[in-house]
Structures are given as structure tokens and as C-alpha cells.
Amino acid sequence: MLGPRGVAAIAAAALSIVALRSAIGQGTPEEQIAAGLYETGLSPQMPADAHCPEMSLGFGTQLNRSGNKRTEAHGIVHAGVDWTLPEGSPVLAIADGRVIERGQDLEGARGNYVAIEHHGLGARIYSNYVHLSGFSVDQGQNVRRGQAIGYVGKTGRSATYVHLHLNVYGDRSLQVGGRKWRYRYDYLQLLSGDMTPIDPVKKRHQKVPVSYIDQHGQIHPSGAKVIWPFACTKTGP
Predict the structure, then answer these.
(1) What is the dihedral of CA 128, 130, 133, 139, to 10 degrees?
(2) pLDDT tens digits for 60-100?
(3) Distance from CA of residue 45 to its chain's centroid?
(4) Contact by Cβ (8 Å): 85, 64
(5) Taking the model in full, what pTM does it have?
(6) Least buried of 45, 153, 157, 183, by fewest C-beta within 10 Å?
(7) Which CATH superfamily is domain 4-38+55-198 in?
(8) Over the stretch 95-116, which tens digit does the pLDDT of each residue have?
(9) d(CA 118, CA 96)
(10) For the chain, counts of helices (H) and of strands (E)
């Protein structure tokens, strides 16, 4: 039987967890789904004629890159996709657009980051490239898909290893965990070209062919509007 002190300690711990979730901004499972924070069932189909850096952590997962449960400190749901590459590797714009923000959040979660607004993708879409070691574009600059916008790094307090974290989001904002949260999309959904809503229960369970730019600056396939955020080495004809 718990005494008053025990009950008070449990209540304080519960309040601390609620406060931490609010600070992280990922809220309840219902709020997460409303904000697009769930696994989509999509997975990449890597090209047979090229070598592309593979993702190290997918969208909406509750696991970290080691396969363990994510901690509250890093967000219980992964709100973007990650690639682990050497520090300084060039990061490429995934689609044509305009740099709307080039920022330094070194004491916060993002570190150095670049945000790009995209048009012509069926909806107004934004991409945010996080934890960069440096920049190669300026705010207000127009960029083309495949153009280097920065470099892989480990900046920001939630960057525990050298990697790119890429967020894709829309215009709509919701209250999640006590703060405003932009609706998130799985980058692979944008890459697929099909932005219709994905059922969080049934999911889509689809392999998405990877469009990319090669070491010679050629886009494959040539008409692709969205590509991989790193150059691929073409090996086939």
C-alpha cells in the first residue's frame, strides 16, 4: 500500500513525462496520427544500375538505428528519415524550390538546417535538412533538384551521430503535445509521386523506385521531379 509520499512521487513522475512529451511536441497516439506521424508501409526500391546511399532510419518508426525503442529525449516517433554518411558529404535538394530558411539552432534539436519550399508537386511541400555541418546556399536562393545545399554533420543537441535528418511537411499546422506541429509526410511518399492520404492502419505497403542524380549530373529517370538527397554512382549503361 503506497503512502502519501509514494502517491505524490508517482504523480510527479507522471507529470514529468507529460511535460517532456509536450516539450518534444509529439503528444498522444491520436495526435500523432492526425499530424501524419505514423509508419506508412512504404520502402525504397534501390536502382539496379546505380549505387545510392541507403537510409539508416525510416519514417514513423518507434525504434532507433540500433533497433531499440526510441527514448522520450529524441521523440518517441521518428518524424523524418535519416542517412548515415561521412561528415562533409554533400546534401542535395530533393526537388526544385526556394530556400526559405537557413538557420543555426545549435542549442536546439536541429543544429544547422536548410528549409526549402517546393512547388509543382501536387501540394505546397517543404523539405528541411537538419544537423548540417555547413551550408552551400543562401536564404532566398532558388535551387534545382540535385543542387548541393549543405553538408552532412552532427550539429544540434539531438544529433547523437553524424547523419542527415530530412523532414518533409505541408502547410497545415496542428496542436500536438501542446504546441503547433506542421503535418509531416514520409519522404518516400513524396518520392512516389502519390500524395493521396495513407491509411495508418492498412498502410500502403509499396516499394518506391528511387529516382536519383548520378556522378555526371544526370537525373534518372530524366523527368523525375523528386530525387534522392545524395548523388548516386551509376554502374550500368
Answers:
(1) 30
(2) 887 665 555 545 544 568 889 999 999 999 999 999 999 99
(3) 18
(4) no
(5) 0.85
(6) 45
(7) Glucose Permease (Domain IIA) (2.70.70.10)
(8) 999 999 999 998 888 999 999 9
(9) 6
(10) 3, 17
